[in-house]
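Entry 12.
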Amino acid sequence: MGVHTRITKKVARAQGLSKVGLRSRSKRQFGFTFVEMMVVITIIVILITIAIPIYQKSIIRAKESVLKNNLFTLRTVIDNYTYDKEKAPQSLQDLVTDGYLKKMPLDPITNTDQWKIVMEDASQAINQSEPGIFDIHSNSDKMSLDGTSYSEW
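Predicted 3D structure (tokens):
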């Protein structure tokens, strides 16, 4: 038996602990140190700061995709209305009341059903006495991820 072992046993007996007491005491000491917790929290914060901008861009991309789809649908419906009625619609509500749309789609950027309307030139209109809607754009003044204005789409 080494000197170190004898000293440890004597210290344990002086404190009233047996071998079993020494082992159970070391087993009861579990958990994380403050430094370990800070390292884990720092890693989590770094991951969150990386993930938030990526998440926000994906939301913007989704809104842009919906906007493109809504503009395509509205332009197609305006063209169909113009060819069927032999005159362009006077308002977007005409598309709903005549059954071309169930309801007016929302502009996902402004979250409203307000659109920027481009009217026909009377000299180039199908029905020159009643020029109507020729094109439609977003009513937003914001810029897209590709650097163009949504109102130009």
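Annotation: Strands lie at 115-119, 133-138. The chain has four helices and two strands.
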